[in-house]
Amino acid sequence: MRASSVSGLAAPSERDYEKNARKAIWASSIGYALDGFDLLILGFILSAVSAGLGLTSTEAGSLVTWTLVGAVIGGVGFGLLSDIYGRVRVLTWTILLFAVFTGMCALAQGYWDLLVYRTIAGLGLGGEFGIGMALATEACRPSQRARVSSYVGLGWQAGVLAAALLTPLLLPIIGWRGMFAVGVLPAIVSFIVRSYIGEPEHFVKSEPVARSFTLAPLKLLVADAETVRRSIGVVILCSVQNFGYYGLMIWMPSYLSTQFGYSLTKSASWTAMTVLGMSLGIWLFGQLADRIGRRPSFLLYQAGAVIMVYVYSQLTTPTALLWGGALMGVFVNGMIGGYGALISELYPRAARATAQNVLFNIGRAIGGFGPVVVGALAAAYSFEVALVLLASLYILDILATLFLIPERKGMELE
Q1: pLDDT band at 394 (very low <50, low <70, confident <90, very high)
Q2: Do residues 11 and 1 make contact, with C-beta atoms less than 8 angstroms apart?
Q3: Of 5-9, 30-34, 77-81, minimum mean pLDDT range
Q4: What values do phi and psi take at 317, rounded to 5?
Q5: Which segment of the chain is annotated as a signal peptide (predicted)?
Q6: Which of 343, 356, 358, 354 is nearest to 408 (CA)?
Q7: Which of 93, 127, 187, 374 lies 20 to 30 Å from 74, alpha-carbon distance?
Q8: What percentage of the chain exceeds 90 in pLDDT?
Q9: Rounded distance, CA 265 to CA 253, Å?
Q10: Displacement of CA 207 from its chain's centroid (Å)
């Protein structure tokens, strides 16, 4: 057994420590998979929902928009609550909120009540990423922190893949209402798993005496000039990450169809290969970042993204487009595997979940304009021009990493 903690309670054994860490990683990964599963499910069934409720295209599109709006608001609010009241407790709140209102979507009778259910469900979704990352990174050893972050990041890809495989099979049988009901199941599984997890020892040892809501964690993100620099740097990294991801994933199937006459089957093959490339990139990023450091890994991937997005814009043959998409996916989305470790190491315990949720969701909000900008450039010029501009954004990423982000590999969390 380890030496007793400050509170006089015996610290967990090595075996218990590893067991708790594994449980935290699995639970956080399942939570993030839930995010990806739900958002992709909504995209797949949007046409069926529109037909069933008589929605206009504008109303249908707003369901996605307001889900993301709810996620941004929920990310900020639940991040603050998590730093005050605890990771596991608040995660349970987010899961319950998400589960209840996802289920309510199956009972919707029209546009307005469905819009309310989706927005409130989005609140719960927004809390998942940052709190889960904080929970997982606080529960693991410093030498494994980037790998743990990448495992949580892989949860999203697993959710996307599950939605892509299940929706075509289930939608004809159970309809869009049934699909919303299916969306409750991962939340129930996640809730059960998390009910067996305690707060990370790091959080418990340093938890403050006061337990009342405050904006103090938010203020810690801009506590001094050095912290402001870090926060700006992280926002730039997260914004470029999301801008590139959404810009590519939304428009590339259309690019392949209009430019090369790809059928739906070929576009699906491209998507599958790109997702596999992204998954490999996420896993590999965690391995590299724990060995060579956070900054070198980010710089390697950012340079790879500049090169591969540009190269992809020049490819013309089916084989090259298929394998080029996979390699591009490695670099464009692989960096998501490192944000959990990076942000956890840059901010103290009192603001860690807040930093994860606020900074990443600011990046998500800015990155949400990616499809709009790419679409506008493609319409005014060409998809090739849009992709070249997209590639150039990663140069901004490189500059932010070089001048605003410090290296904290292997350091104990504050």
Answers
A1: very high
A2: yes
A3: 5-9
A4: -90, 150
A5: none
A6: 343
A7: 374
A8: 29
A9: 10
A10: 26
CA 348, chain centre distance (Å): 21
Number of H helices, E strands in the chain: 16, 0
What is the rounded distance in angstroms from the CA atom of residue 126 to the CA atom of residue 94?
A: 8
Crossing angle for the helix pair 145-182 and 264-292, to the nearest 10 degrees: 150
Of 82, 63, 61, which is closest to residue 71 (Cα–Cα)? 63
Residue found by looking up tokens 């639970």 in the block: 27
Tokens of 196: 């067996």
Give the angle 123-159-153 at the CA atoms, nearest 5°: 80
CB 298 within 8 A of CB 243: no
Which residue type does 297 have? S
Is residue 180 within 8 A of residue 39, CB to CB? The reply is no
SS3 115: helix
Distance CA(320)–CA(332), nearest Å, equals 17
Contact 80, 217 (CB under 8 A): yes
The encoded tokens of residue 370 equal: 């990616």
Cα→Cα distances 10→4, 90, 125, Å: 4, 26, 36
Domains assigned to the chain: 14-205 (1.20.1250.20), 217-404 (1.20.1250.20)
Indicate the pLDDT class of residue 54, thresholds 50, 70 and 90: very high
Mean pLDDT of the chain: 83
- pLDDT band at residue 1, thresholds of 50, 70 and 90? very low
Helices (DSSP H) in 111-196: which residue ranges?
111-139, 145-182, 184-194
Alpha-carbon span 218 to 358, nearest angstrom: 8
Of 191, 47, 35, 239, whose CA–CA distance to 122 is shortest? 35
pTM of the model: 0.83
Cα–Cα distance for residue pair 238/281, rounded to 1 Å: 16
CA atoms within 13 A on the CB side of 4: 4
pLDDT tens digits along 84-103: 887 878 888 888 888 889 88
* pLDDT (mean) for 324-350: 90
pLDDT at 192 over 80: no
